[in-house]
Every structure is written in C-alpha cells, then in structure tokens.
Amino acid sequence: MLDWIDLTLAFAFIGGLAIFMYVLMDGFDLGVGILFPFLPGGEDDRDIAMNTVAPIWDGNETWLILGGAALFAGFPLAYSVILPALYLPLLLMLIALIFRGVAFEFRFKAVTSRGAWGYSFFFGSLFATFAQGVILGAFIQGFEVEGRDFVGGLLDWLTPFSLMTGVALVCGYALLGCTWLILKTEDGLRDWCYRLAPKLLLGVLIFIGLVSLITPLWNEAVRDRWFTFPNLLYLAPVPVLTLLVAAMLLTTVRQRRDGPPFVLTMLLFLLAYGGLAISLWPLAIPPDITIWDAASPPESQVFLFVGLVFLVPTILAYTAYTYWVFRGKIRAGEGYH
Predict the structure, then answer these.
(1) CA–CA dist 161, 143 (Å, integer)
(2) Which one of 47, 210, 324, 329 is most buried, counting C-beta atoms within 10 A?
(3) Cβ neighbours of 102 (radius 10 Å)
(4) pLDDT tens digit string along 45-69?
C-alpha cells in the first residue's frame, strides 16, 4: 500500500510545511506583540494592533501542533533527541506562549490590571520568539548523539551563535508584524510602521548575512554544498533573489503601499527558509542523522499519512476562510473583544 510514494519524504515535506506555515502565521502576531509597547498612539493603537490578530492567533498555532505531531509520528528518533537537547528553550517558549495567549483574553476585560496584561503580551511574544530563534541556532549547530541517544549537556544549546539567531528571529518577526500592521491599519500607526520597516529590514539582512557567512565557516558539508561547482551556479539565484526581494520590499514601503510589503516579507522568509533547507538537507538531526535514519516504521507511516491527507487540506481551508472573514482594515472601536 502506498508503495508508489516515499513516505519518509512525504513526512519531511509535511513537517517542513507545518514549520514554515507556523513561522509565517504565528510570526506576524508574535511580531505585533514585540512591537506592542512601542506603538506611538498609546492604548488606542495597542487596542487596534491586538485586534488585528485576536481573531486568528489561535488558529495560527495549529501549525505548531501539526509540526510537533509530524516530528513525533514521522521521525521518532529526532523527537527523542531534540526534546532533551532543547528542553530549556522549548519550556521557555511554551510558557511564553501561554502568557501571550492568556493576555489576549484578559487584557480587553481587565481594568486595573490592563497594563500588566499588555506587558504579558509583549514579554510572552518576545521570549517565545527568542526561544524559537535559539532552538533554530542550536539545530543548525547539531547535537551530540551516540547510538540513538542524546549524550550532550543540558546547556549545549547556549552558544553565541544560538543567541545571535534568537535576536535575529526577534528582528525578523518584528518586520513581519510591522508589515502586517501596514496592511491592517491606517493613519498614525501605519505611518509609524512605514518609518520603522526599513530599519527592521536592514537588521534582518545583516543577520541573514551573518548566518550565511558563519555556517559555512564551521560546517564543511554546508561549505561544499554552496561553494563548489556546479552547485555554486545552481544555488546562486537564492542570495540574488533575497537581495532583489529586499530591494522590492524597501521600494514598496517608500511608495507607501499597503499589501506588497507584507507579501514580500513573507517571500523573504521563504527564501531564508529555503536556504536553510538546502544547507541541511537531508538531515533530521545534524550533523549526521538523515531523515531516513530517523524515520518511523513503514506501517506507522502509512497509518498516519492517511490521516494527514485529510487533515492538512482541512487546516489550509479553514485558515483561508478565517483570513477571508477577517479581511480589511481594523479601525478604532472595531474588532474582536
């Protein structure tokens, strides 16, 4: 049954899609949270900003659950190594996401504690994003594995590189949130986002450049993949397109257009994600364990794949419907309470 398809590749694609969709979907509402205390119009602008994401944030996190389920079901060895290796940053991320989620429900209803829940929204978004960036950096660096067990230390993830990728993702999500607010708001708040977006874009490009330079320096396999012929010719379009998209993003911001900056920011994330996938493919646990080494038995893959065939289109459909229902600008006094 299903002999015509490589189920390990299919699970890798579904897991990769879920992670990327989570980065995009939850990335911009985490970015709104990161910008939250700095918005120029005080509580009025904060109400508007929160209302742009309040109806959709919980649906966005469906992709995180799907990505975790795909990892657990499709690649149990990766699950059993990555969780103990990244226990502390994962715990920080989950706690921060809980505080961020509670803040959505409590801030609009609170009176005396309204400010405290606003800061809960900010710090929950900030720490969740930073933890995700640290996890990414630790994954790129790889894990110490013997046999099928993680044998590294509790703080192996804590390195200058992982801290840098944590800050980098904060900057990237802030850019996503900024361009989302350009799309969804008007007047003073949108004008402030137009002024902020070029600065955030510069920060994102600097961090993309640093990661692109540092990773090949200490990883010979990545260096060979990107800088040997004929790979150099085949892969050259990735950095070229990244610079082109960044230039288009800057141009559309200066032209004060509403929709294109957000779309181009998502495309910038897609190119960065694609570059990372090219560098690490086909590893499930860097530096040595591939997706086929970490895959679950074929019988388990068949059972779970049948369910995912129905689940993924359903998630895509209700996500599209939700965004369609809540399309358009959010103005003062409007939104979800």
Answers:
(1) 14
(2) 47
(3) 14
(4) 998 999 998 888 878 888 888 888 8
